[in-house]
Protein backbone atom coordinates (compact mmCIF):
# COMPACT_ATOMS: atom_id res chain seq x y z
CA UNK A 1 0.00 0.00 0.00
CA UNK A 2 1.48 3.34 -0.99
CA UNK A 3 0.75 6.84 0.26
CA UNK A 4 -1.62 6.20 3.17
CA UNK A 5 -3.05 3.11 1.56
CA UNK A 6 -3.89 4.71 -1.75
CA UNK A 7 -2.24 3.25 -4.81
CA UNK A 8 -2.41 6.11 -7.29
CA UNK A 9 -2.02 3.68 -10.16
CA UNK A 10 -5.77 3.13 -10.13
CA UNK A 11 -8.10 2.18 -12.92
CA UNK A 12 -9.46 5.14 -14.86
CA UNK A 13 -11.98 5.72 -17.59
CA UNK A 14 -10.18 6.14 -20.90
CA UNK A 15 -10.56 9.32 -22.90
CA UNK A 16 -11.76 7.36 -25.90
CA UNK A 17 -14.72 6.05 -23.94
CA UNK A 18 -13.33 2.60 -23.21
CA UNK A 19 -12.69 1.40 -19.70
CA UNK A 20 -8.97 1.55 -18.94
CA UNK A 21 -7.27 -0.70 -16.41
CA UNK A 22 -9.52 -3.65 -17.27
CA UNK A 23 -9.53 -6.17 -20.06
CA UNK A 24 -9.66 -4.22 -23.32
CA UNK A 25 -12.87 -4.24 -25.28
CA UNK A 26 -13.55 -3.15 -28.82
CA UNK A 27 -16.86 -1.61 -27.77
CA UNK A 28 -16.77 2.14 -27.24
CA UNK A 29 -19.06 4.10 -24.95
CA UNK A 30 -21.27 6.85 -26.31
CA UNK A 31 -20.61 10.41 -25.08
CA UNK A 32 -23.92 10.46 -23.21
CA UNK A 33 -23.23 7.16 -21.48
CA UNK A 34 -19.70 8.34 -20.70
CA UNK A 35 -21.13 11.42 -19.04
CA UNK A 36 -23.24 9.32 -16.69
CA UNK A 37 -20.34 6.96 -16.02
CA UNK A 38 -18.20 9.92 -15.01
CA UNK A 39 -20.93 11.17 -12.68
CA UNK A 40 -21.19 7.73 -11.05
CA UNK A 41 -17.44 7.19 -10.86
CA UNK A 42 -16.94 10.57 -9.20
CA UNK A 43 -19.45 9.60 -6.52
CA UNK A 44 -21.88 12.37 -7.44
CA UNK A 45 -24.68 9.82 -7.92
CA UNK A 46 -24.97 6.11 -7.29
CA UNK A 47 -25.98 3.83 -10.17
CA UNK A 48 -29.58 3.42 -9.03
CA UNK A 49 -30.16 7.17 -8.74
CA UNK A 50 -28.53 7.83 -12.09
CA UNK A 51 -30.72 5.26 -13.84
CA UNK A 52 -33.83 6.78 -12.26
CA UNK A 53 -32.87 10.24 -13.46
CA UNK A 54 -32.34 8.99 -17.02
CA UNK A 55 -36.01 8.03 -17.26
CA UNK A 56 -37.96 5.18 -18.81
CA UNK A 57 -38.41 6.09 -22.47
CA UNK A 58 -37.32 3.73 -25.24
CA UNK A 59 -34.19 5.80 -25.84
CA UNK A 60 -33.51 5.91 -22.10
CA UNK A 61 -33.64 2.12 -21.83
CA UNK A 62 -30.92 1.82 -24.47
CA UNK A 63 -28.76 4.32 -22.59
CA UNK A 64 -29.35 2.50 -19.31
CA UNK A 65 -28.30 -0.81 -20.83
CA UNK A 66 -25.14 0.79 -22.20
CA UNK A 67 -24.27 2.23 -18.77
CA UNK A 68 -24.91 -1.08 -17.02
CA UNK A 69 -22.74 -2.90 -19.57
CA UNK A 70 -19.92 -0.40 -19.01
CA UNK A 71 -20.30 -0.74 -15.25
CA UNK A 72 -20.04 -4.51 -15.57
CA UNK A 73 -16.80 -3.99 -17.50
CA UNK A 74 -15.55 -2.21 -14.38
CA UNK A 75 -16.42 -5.28 -12.35
CA UNK A 76 -19.69 -3.73 -11.24
CA UNK A 77 -17.83 -1.20 -9.12
CA UNK A 78 -17.11 2.48 -9.52
CA UNK A 79 -13.49 3.25 -10.32
CA UNK A 80 -11.78 6.24 -8.79
CA UNK A 81 -9.72 8.43 -11.08
CA UNK A 82 -6.15 9.14 -9.95
CA UNK A 83 -7.09 12.83 -10.01
CA UNK A 84 -10.07 12.33 -7.70
CA UNK A 85 -9.86 14.95 -4.90
CA UNK A 86 -10.09 12.27 -2.20
CA UNK A 87 -7.18 10.31 -3.73
CA UNK A 88 -5.07 13.44 -4.08
CA UNK A 89 -5.87 14.53 -0.53
CA UNK A 90 -4.94 11.12 0.90
CA UNK A 91 -1.58 11.37 -0.83
CA UNK A 92 -1.09 14.82 0.67
CA UNK A 93 -1.91 13.39 4.10
CA UNK A 94 0.69 10.67 3.60
CA UNK A 95 3.27 13.38 2.97
CA UNK A 96 2.08 15.21 6.09
CA UNK A 97 2.56 12.04 8.14
CA UNK A 98 6.06 11.66 6.70
CA UNK A 99 6.96 15.12 7.95
CA UNK A 100 5.56 14.34 11.41
CA UNK A 101 7.62 11.14 11.56
CA UNK A 102 10.81 12.89 10.50
CA UNK A 103 10.50 15.46 13.31
CA UNK A 104 11.55 13.06 16.07
CA UNK A 105 12.46 15.87 18.46
CA UNK A 106 8.93 17.28 18.53
CA UNK A 107 7.38 13.80 18.54
CA UNK A 108 9.29 13.19 21.76
CA UNK A 109 8.07 16.54 23.13
CA UNK A 110 4.37 15.76 22.60
CA UNK A 111 4.30 12.12 23.75
CA UNK A 112 5.25 10.14 26.84
CA UNK A 113 5.87 11.51 30.31
CA UNK A 114 8.41 14.16 29.34
CA UNK A 115 5.76 16.36 27.72
CA UNK A 116 4.16 17.13 31.07
CA UNK A 117 7.43 18.16 32.70
CA UNK A 118 7.63 21.80 33.78
CA UNK A 119 10.70 22.26 31.61
CA UNK A 120 8.82 21.24 28.48
CA UNK A 121 6.77 24.38 27.87
CA UNK A 122 4.70 24.88 24.75
CA UNK A 123 6.85 26.72 22.22
CA UNK A 124 6.21 27.51 18.57
CA UNK A 125 7.82 24.31 17.33
CA UNK A 126 5.80 22.13 19.67
CA UNK A 127 2.63 24.14 19.05
CA UNK A 128 3.01 23.80 15.26
CA UNK A 129 3.63 20.07 15.56
CA UNK A 130 0.52 19.55 17.69
CA UNK A 131 -1.52 21.66 15.28
CA UNK A 132 -0.35 19.52 12.35
CA UNK A 133 -1.28 16.30 14.14
CA UNK A 134 -4.69 17.72 15.04
CA UNK A 135 -5.26 18.77 11.44
CA UNK A 136 -4.40 15.24 10.33
CA UNK A 137 -6.76 13.60 12.83
CA UNK A 138 -9.64 15.94 12.05
CA UNK A 139 -9.36 15.59 8.28
CA UNK A 140 -12.55 14.04 6.86
CA UNK A 141 -10.93 12.42 3.83
CA UNK A 142 -10.44 9.00 5.43
CA UNK A 143 -14.13 8.85 6.38
CA UNK A 144 -15.02 9.91 2.84
CA UNK A 145 -12.92 7.02 1.52
CA UNK A 146 -14.70 4.65 3.92
CA UNK A 147 -18.14 5.86 2.85
CA UNK A 148 -17.38 5.64 -0.85
CA UNK A 149 -15.77 2.23 -0.54
CA UNK A 150 -18.82 0.98 1.35
CA UNK A 151 -20.90 2.28 -1.55
CA UNK A 152 -18.83 0.19 -3.98
CA UNK A 153 -16.02 2.50 -5.07
CA UNK A 154 -12.62 1.00 -5.77
CA UNK A 155 -9.52 2.84 -4.58
CA UNK A 156 -6.58 1.13 -6.23
CA UNK A 157 -5.12 -1.63 -4.08
CA UNK A 158 -6.66 -0.43 -0.82
CA UNK A 159 -8.18 -3.49 0.82
CA UNK A 160 -10.81 -3.56 3.54
CA UNK A 161 -8.18 -4.83 6.00
CA UNK A 162 -5.83 -1.95 5.19
CA UNK A 163 -8.67 0.53 5.47
CA UNK A 164 -9.56 -0.79 8.93
CA UNK A 165 -5.92 -0.47 9.97
CA UNK A 166 -5.93 3.18 8.91
CA UNK A 167 -9.13 3.83 10.85
CA UNK A 168 -7.74 2.04 13.89
CA UNK A 169 -4.49 4.03 13.89
CA UNK A 170 -6.39 7.28 13.57
CA UNK A 171 -8.71 6.27 16.42
CA UNK A 172 -5.80 5.31 18.68
CA UNK A 173 -4.13 8.68 18.21
CA UNK A 174 -7.38 10.59 18.61
CA UNK A 175 -8.20 8.65 21.76
CA UNK A 176 -4.77 9.32 23.26
CA UNK A 177 -4.94 13.06 22.60
CA UNK A 178 -5.18 15.34 25.61
CA UNK A 179 -7.14 18.50 24.87
CA UNK A 180 -7.74 21.81 26.56
CA UNK A 181 -11.20 23.24 27.25
CA UNK A 182 -11.36 24.57 23.68
CA UNK A 183 -10.64 21.18 22.12
CA UNK A 184 -7.07 22.04 21.15
CA UNK A 185 -4.65 19.12 21.46
CA UNK A 186 -1.97 19.79 24.05
CA UNK A 187 -0.25 16.40 24.00
CA UNK A 188 -0.71 12.64 23.80
CA UNK A 189 -1.05 10.13 26.63
CA UNK A 190 0.92 7.59 24.65
CA UNK A 191 4.58 6.61 24.43
CA UNK A 192 6.76 8.03 21.69
CA UNK A 193 7.30 4.51 20.30
CA UNK A 194 3.56 3.85 20.13
CA UNK A 195 2.85 7.23 18.56
CA UNK A 196 5.49 6.52 15.93
CA UNK A 197 3.99 3.08 15.25
CA UNK A 198 0.50 4.48 14.69
CA UNK A 199 1.79 7.23 12.41
CA UNK A 200 3.74 4.66 10.39
CA UNK A 201 0.51 2.70 9.86
CA UNK A 202 -1.09 5.84 8.45
CA UNK A 203 1.83 6.44 6.12
CA UNK A 204 2.20 2.92 4.65
- What is the share of helical residues? 55-70%
Please report the distance between the alpha carbons of the first and last residues. Answer: 6 Å
The poorly predicted ranges are: 1-26
Structural class: mainly alpha
Report the portion of residues in β strands. Answer: 5-15%
Radius of gyration: 22 Å
Shape: elongated
Q: How many beta strands in the DSSP annotation?
A: 4
Strand adjacency order, main sheet:
1-2
Give me some keywords for this one.
single chain; 204 residues; two-stranded antiparallel sheet; elongated; disordered N terminus
Structure in words:
There is one protein chain. With 204 residues, the protein is mainly α. It is built from nine helices and four strands. The strands form two sheets. Strands 1-2 form a two-stranded parallel ribbon. Strands 3-4 form a two-stranded antiparallel sheet. Strand 3 (177-179) and strand 4 (185-188) form a beta hairpin. Helix 1 packs across helix 3 and helix 4 (85-102) runs antiparallel to helix 9. 25% of the residues are buried.
Entry summary:
By secondary structure, the chain is mainly alpha-helical. It has helices at 31-41, 47-54, 58-73, 85-102, 104-109, 124-138, 141-150, 160-176, 192-203, and strands at 78-79, 153-154, 177-179, 185-188. The chain is built from nine helices and four strands; from the N terminus they run αααβααααβαββα.
Chain-wise SSE layout:
Elements: H1 31-41, H2 47-54, H3 58-73, E1 78-79, H4 85-102, H5 104-109, H6 124-138, H7 141-150, E2 153-154, H8 160-176, E3 177-179, E4 185-188, H9 192-203
Parallel strand pairs: 1-2
Antiparallel strand pairs: 3-4
Helix pairs in contact: 1-3, 4-6, 4-7, 4-9, 8-9
